[in-house]
Design goal:
Number of helices of chain A: 6
Largest sheet of chain A: 4 strands, antiparallel
Number of domains of chain B: 2
Number of strands of chain B: 12
Protein name (chain A): ER membrane protein complex subunit 1
Membrane topology (chain A): Single-pass type I membrane protein
Helix content of chain B: 25-40%
Keywords (chain A): Endoplasmic reticulum, Glycoprotein, Membrane, Signal, Transmembrane, Transmembrane helix
Strand order of the largest sheet of chain B: 3-2-5-7-8-9
Family (chain A): Belongs to the EMC1 family.
Domain ER membrane protein complex subunit 1 C-terminal (chain A): 727-951
Distance between the termini of chain B: 101 Å
Structural class of chain B: alpha+beta
Strand content of chain B: 15-25%
Oligomer: heterodimer
CATH topology of the largest domain in chain B: Immunoglobulin-like
Structural class of chain A: mainly beta
Shape of chain A: globular
Strand order of the largest sheet of chain A: 2-63-62-61
Number of strands of chain A: 63
Number of helices of chain B: 8
Radius of gyration of chain B: 42 Å
Largest sheet of chain B: 6 strands, antiparallel
CATH architecture of the largest domain in chain B: Sandwich
Largest interface: A-B, 84 and 64 residues
CATH class of the largest domain in chain B: Mainly Beta
Radius of gyration of chain A: 34 Å
Helix content of chain A: under 10%
Chain lengths: 954, 259
């Protein structure tokens, strides 16, 4: 009952400013990302036996299994396997076969089958014996099996043993199991129509590995025979085996000798090793050999070997004679400079190979070298393609092909008949830092005005006249655009073009692997440019500073890279320093308007003494201390805050750099004023004690280091995220709170909001009242005065992993507490009026309180659907949310990154300074026209009447 | 409860492998007529405080049969306390599920499943969904039904432009009535019986209101309609003219105009 009451109260709240249905995709954009697709676990597959269209399936390096619509690149569903896998896996595996309506994925010791159509779980299994080394779906159909369901063969390997299991396609239960305790390395599994092959690597006496093939009966799992291939001189590591043919009519094992002079091919199940000489005419060393073969039982036993050198690539196609198990070379695809990628597709029994090079895409049949289709590709970037999959359609004599090509810099493109259909920027999943760029459009004008300001009156006048005459050259253009602008403003969605109000500023995103992207927030977050700023895989960016036209990125090694925000060109770099930085502090210097940075070391000390005269710096150190520093001294801190023993500082937050306060007090219902405790130097420190499950929150004064307020929560799960945010005169934090020894307290996620006032009494400023001057360091009064803190706690339905506050230009608009909800993949903006700690408890609000906007406190705060900034979108993996003011007071820009990329606008008090979509210009024009017509019709009538009246009067 | 607990613990020791599974099925309900429309990201979680190194957050994905299955609930040493979990079902979409309380014994068997209320004491248990039956020995697999309590509305409805809403506007209604009178009255008068007409005219003339209106229309003040119609370039001249002719029109004006 109480729950319903709470729900009722939540429903009664006035919706802050929810998104309109037609604003979706207009004010927001979302890149649903997967990460780099794994080369051997990406494929086109028909999701069910009844459907004709196939989808693109993959498992990424982030262990996300996903299905993509090849038509537009939209993500249909995805599942994160890394959450379920216990042991850190080396990579994921994903398999699917035509005729099975589910795909099977494995990561670590976890294997699961997902419905191919909608991504729902069919079954899952965890193996205690070890991790999944390989898995295959059995293509052969049992007479007993239900249609659309295929069994899975999985190899589970540990240090000492390898287990082959056949899992039921419906339930995932084990049908049979074959165990081998020989200590061989479990390698792969493969199947032919009649047999299952378990391939393991047996260490040879001296060095290298022998390939051991165990043939199993698919029905019983009993060992039929076993063969050991003497490959120890060639196979030094498991990586030396290039290919184990999975699920083809005559599966093969391919490896090369050490000098890469000849290719060794074994048809699995036979003892014979075919040796084929590699015909290297390119003259340079072979860097990589890849084998491509069909993954279908009824396909022709043909395969392609792709040889890549530093500068180019060629490929050779081989045929396997099923009867004699001999391998013969059929033809060669010539050496071409530049990178090539190959993909295999099967139609009926025919095998086709697609070659995508930098300039063209060609399709050949495996039977002959005649080119079936050739398309020129649009001029591509310098990106080298890594791997591709393709889907082929044949009609009479022509073929149509679409290939999904993944390139080195994280772009996944679908090329259909030589046209790029879509590009997914999967590299953005690694975003570590982002900020809005500043465009230098107005800089020229600012400079001219400065010249005028410093000239004599006459000189300035002449300069201005000249400037205006110069500006006349733009007049014809401007006039030409007027009709178009009027038309578009009537027809367009938005009444005014808001781009000039700073709503379409590009966002600069830096990723972990050293790439920098610029996203156009005005154009669905499209990538404007992307550059490789640094060659690294661990780029820990601490700060990005922007000035008009440029952006400077500061990673943790003390170096910096400055880029041009409109082109992405690297303007300058600075070398790295020796010490590793913990964080980077940014402050505005006094003389110029530019921002400066100072690095903070792991021990919390600034790298250099900063020159800011009145500045101070609060840092946290790796050993859980909070330190305060003043200018010109980076040796000894002014103050030091050490939490009680056993506590560890996990987070510290301060008011945002841009945090304007519209009113210094809160007007109460009786017209008295409660003065806000406004201190720009506040820092909120979160410390946890993992042993006693407590979390403490300390509010510090940054100048003096004094603890202004402290609170401790018990029963806190310190392993779950504890988020906090601060703004104006309030702060909020959330955590998982559990019951104590008795069960009278509540269990669940909690959100605590605290407001700071100068005094508990209205119209009273406490000790500050009589003070004419106030400094927190040198003061006659108690320094600084303690705030009066009012807090209220709410139970919330979900964990919050990150908190921030919306920022607007003047701070007049009510603020929203932006919370990232990791378990429902959403971003929510809770309106501040709801989180008012002065809400009356256990009674209804009096008339005066209701006038203030207060209403009765309910312990449970349900998240209203209208608060969801991400509405129905599935915004996963968000690590950080940024907010930025625009030139419109009503609007705040929101950008979220860390997994997916999501950007939107928040209007916490409705878009009061914009004519929205509901304002119809067309309607206005029509009304004016209708009135005009009315006047035109009525005027002659009135005139006639009056004339008649005058005539008839006399 | 304590008695049942200890007997259960004994049971757990004797049966050894008894870690049970918990299945939560989603029934057809009025907020959610088709449970299969739930997005694939829907999942159920069991959460409690970390204890003795066991998983304290368990998660289960939505299955094809619109249910969640927790295999192998964690079991710890037999002398440990039973653990009490909060069961949440969250969906990236609109559906809101009721939270449940799940008590799991140290050996991994489920002691009970109750509905719970957020923002209430943990011991305030609601409807019993499942309770262990000590007499019937062990039941390892528990199936409970989830409860959908609400559906979230994410979007604001935009007021649609419709001609009907325009007509509903009182200003427009007034204008339409006025127009109707203006055009309809002369027609009505024409069709009227001559005697009736004469009577009506007599009546309207004697009526003080209409007389005043007529006065105002014809005589006094600035003739806006006339000015707008362009009958006189100079409004003051028009007024003068109207005043000069006022004497003759005072009595007979309206009758003539209607005539």
């Amino acid at each position: 009952m109480r729950l319903q009451a709470a729900l009722f109260f939540a429903a009664c709240l006035s919706p802050a400013a929810a998104i309109y249905n037609d604003e979706v995709n207009h004010i927001d954009f979302h890149h649903a990302l997967l990460g780099s697709p794994s080369p051997d676990s990406t494929f086109f597959l028909k999701p069910s036996s009844t459907s004709n269209a196939s989808l693109l399936y993959t498992i990424s390096d982030k262990l996300l299994v996903g299905a993509i619509n090849p038509r537009d690149g939209a993500l249909l569903w995805r599942q994160n396997l890394s959450r379920s896998a216990d042991s850190p896996p080396r990579g994921g595996l994903l398999r699917g076969v035509d005729g099975n309506d589910a795909v099977v994925g494995a990561a670590g010791n976890y294997i699961s089958s997902w419905s191919a159509q909608d991504g729902k779980l069919a079954w899952e299994n965890r193996f205690s014996e070890g991790v999944v080394a390989d898995l295959e779906l059995l293509e052969l159909e049992d007479a007993t099996a239900t249609p659309g369901v295929r069994d899975t063969i999985v190899v589970v390997g540990s240090e000492v043993s390898g287990i082959v299991r056949r899992l039921d396609g419906d339930s995932g239960s084990t049908k049979w199991e074959y165990k081998e305790d020989s200590g061989d390395i479990p390698f792969q599994v493969s199947s032919s129509p009649t047999e299952i092959f378990y391939i393991s690597l047996q260490s040879a006496l001296l060095k290298g590995y022998k390939i051991k093939v165990t043939v199993l009966d698919p029905v019983t799992g009993k060992q039929v025979r076993q063969q050991v291939l003497s490959s120890e001189s060639d196979v030094a590591t498991p990586e030396s085996v290039l290919f184990v043919g999975a699920n083809i009519a005559s599966p093969i094992i391919v490896w090369t000798d050490k000098s890469q002079k000849s290719l060794k091919v074994n048809v699995i199940g036979t003892k014979e090793i075919n040796s084929v000489a590699i015909d290297n005419t390119s003259g340079s060393e072979i860097r990589k050999i890849t084998v491509h073969a069909a993954h279908k039982l009824n396909a022709l036993p043909h395969f392609l070997v792709h040889y890549a050198t530093e500068a180019g690539a060629w490929a050779e196609v081989y045929h396997v004679d099923m009867k004699s198990s001999k391998v013969t070379k059929a033809y060669q695809l010539p050496y071409l400079p530049g990178q090539s990628v190959f993909a295999t597709s099967v139609i009926d029994a025919n095998v086709y190979f697609t070659r995508v090079t930098d300039s063209e895409a060609i399709v050949v049949s495996s039977a002959s070298h005649g080119i079936l289709g050739r398309w020129n590709l649009p001029k591509s970037s310098s990106d080298a393609a890594l791997h591709a999959v393709s889907d082929l359609v044949t009609r009479e004599k022509s073929v149509a092909v679409r290939s999904a090509v993944f390139s080195e810099h994280g772009d996944w493109q679908l090329i259909r008949n030589g046209q790029i259909e879509w590009t997914r920027n999967e590299g953005l999943i690694d975003a570590v830092a982002a900020t809005w760029a500043e465009i230098d459009a107005q800089e020229g004008l600012a400079h001219e005005l400065e010249v005028e300001g410093h000239d004599t009156i006459y000189g300035a006048y002449v300069h201005r006249v000249k400037r205006h005459v110069r500006d006349l050259q733009y007049l014809p253009d401007w006039l030409k655009h007027i009709p178009g602008r009027i038309l578009s403003s009537i027809l367009s969605d938005e009444v005014t073009n808001l781009d000039s109000f700073g709503l379409a500023t590009p966002v600069i995103v830096a990723t972990k692997n050293g790439r920098v992207y610029a996203l156009d927030t005005g154009n669905h977050g499209a990538v404007l440019w992307s550059v490789q700023a640094v060659e690294t895989s661990q780029w820990d960016v601490k700060a990005i500073l922007t000035s008009p036209g440029t952006a400077t990125i500061y990673p943790n090694d003390g170096s910096s890279v400055t880029l041009n925000v409109s082109t992405g060109d690297i303007i300058s770099r600075t070398a790295s320093s020796d010490s590793k930085l913990r964080s980077i502090a940014v402050f505005g210097s006094q003389e110029t308007s530019s921002l400066n940075t100072v690095g903070v070391r792991e021990d919390g000390s600034p790298v250099t003494a900063f020159d800011e005269v009145n500045g101070f710096l609060v840092t946290t150190s790796a050993d859980s201390r909070v330190l305060g520093w003043i200018a010109k001294d980076n040796k000894s801190p002014v103050w030091e805050f050490v939490p009680p023993s056993g506590q560890k500082v996990i987070h510290a937050t301060a008011r945002p750099a841009h945090d304007p306060v519209a009113s210094i007090g809160k007007v109460l219902g009786d017209r008295s004023v409660l003065y806000k405790y406004l201190n720009t130097n506040l820092a909120l420190v979160t410390a946890v004690n993992e042993k006693t499950n407590t979390a403490s929150f300390y509010l510090l004064d940054g100048v003096s280091g004094k603890v202004l307020h402290a609170t401790t929560q018990s029963g806190v799960d310190t392993t779950q995220p504890i988020a906090s945010a601060m703004s104006e005169n309030w702060f909020a934090y959330s955590f998982w709170g559990d019951v104590g020894s008795n069960e009278s307290s509540a269990k669940g996620y909690q959100l605590v909001i605290s407001e700071l006032y100068e005094s508990p009494f209205p119209n009273d400023r406490g000790p500050l009242d009589s003070a004419s001057n106030y400094s927190s360091l040198h003061s006659s009064i108690e320094s600084p005065p303690l705030p009066h803190v009012i807090s209220q706690a709410f139970m919330i339905p979900e964990p919050i992993s990150h908190m921030t506050v919306t920022q607007t230009r003047q701070g007049i608009t009510t603020r929203q507490l932006l919370c990232t909800l990791p378990s429902s993949n959403s971003i929510i903006g809770i309106p501040r009026p709801v989180l008012d700690p002065r809400r009356p408890v256990d009674r209804d609000a009096t008339a005066a309180e209701a006038e203030e906007g207060l209403f009765r406190y309910a312990p449970y705060l349900d998240f209203d659907g209208k608060w969801y900034l991400s509405h129905a979108r599935d915004v996963a993996g968000i690590k950080e949310v940024l907010s930025r003011p625009t030139l419109l007071e009503s609007t705040s820009l929101i950008f979220a990154f860390g997994g997916d990329i999501y950007g939107t606008r928040a209007t916490p008090s409705q878009a009061f300074d914009v004519l929205g979509k509901s304002f119809s210009k067309l309607q206005l024009v029509l009304t004016v026209v209708a009135l005009g017509v009315g006047v035109a019709v009525l005027a002659p009538m009135t005139r006639r009447k009056q004339v008649n009246a005058l005539w008839k009067a006399t | 409860m304590h008695l049942s607990l200890s007997s259960l613990l004994l049971l757990g020791i004797s049966s050894l492998v008894s870690s049970s599974s918990l299945t939560i099925s989603i029934p057809v309900s009025s907020p959610l007529p088709n449970p299969h429309v739930l997005p694939a990201t829907t999942h159920a979680t069991l959460t409690t405080l970390p204890f003795s190194g066991k998983d304290h957050i368990l998660s289960a994905s939505l299955t094809r049969s619109a249910s969640f299955v927790f295999h192998d609930l964690p079991s710890s040493s037999p002398d440990a306390q039973p653990e009490s979990y909060l069961l949440d079902i969250r969906s990236a979409g609109e559906y809101v599920f009721a939270p449940y309380r799940v008590d799991v014994a140290a050996d991994g068997t489920i002691l009970g499943v109750w509905e719970t209320f957020r923002g209430n004491p943990w011991d305030n248990r609601g409807a019993v969904k499942y309770i262990v039956d000590v007499a019937a020995k062990k039941q390892v697999d528990v199936v409970v039904e989830a409860k959908v309590i609400a559906r979230r509305a994410f979007y604001e409805e935009r007021a649609k432009f419709s001609p009907l809403s325009l007509v509903k506007n009182p200003m427009i209604l007034l204008a339409i009535v006025a127009m109707g009178l203006m055009f309809g009255m002369p027609k009505l008068m024409e069709n009227m019986d001559p005697e009736m007409r004469a009577e009506f005219e007599q009546h309207s003339r004697s009526s003080p209101i209409s007389g005043a209106t007529n006065n105002a229309m014809a005589g006094g003040g600035f003739d806006l309609a006339g000015w707008m119609a362009g009958t006189s370039a100079n409004p003051t001249a028009n007024t003068d003219a109207a005043q000069s002719g006022a004497t003759g029109r005072d009595t007979s004006g309206p009758a003539r105009r209607r005539g």
